[in-house]
């Protein structure tokens, strides 16, 4: 049986833009396993897991994850990494898609993988979503946020 570290490294290999095997990635999970994109408050289960990989790769088709540190603590594998790629696809937002900019991303992240009996039970991805957005030119609109807060506070 493969070690927990080998299973996690295989998951990263299958999610690379030049490989992208969503079904193979999904097969590494338990039947009820979850992929949690923590900063974006999204949880993917079952067939949603390969769809999440494909969705990200459609925006950054050359996606690569540079693993900086990998630590195994029993059934938990902790990874410090950088998510890299080129913004070549439309980036979906609640109010519309951000057109491709051609900008490179290099986003710091930390992943926690929880395994049970040689399968991934839970994958928690903590990526610096604010860094990614800034790198594709989507900076926060603080003026609108301030105005909305003022309106809410005054009841107008």
UniProtKB/TrEMBL annotation:
It holds the Pfam family SnoaL_2. Residues 21-122 form the SnoaL-like domain. Keywords: Isomerase. It comes from the Bacteria. It comes from Saccharothrix coeruleofusca. One of its GO terms (molecular function) is isomerase activity. This is Ketosteroid isomerase.
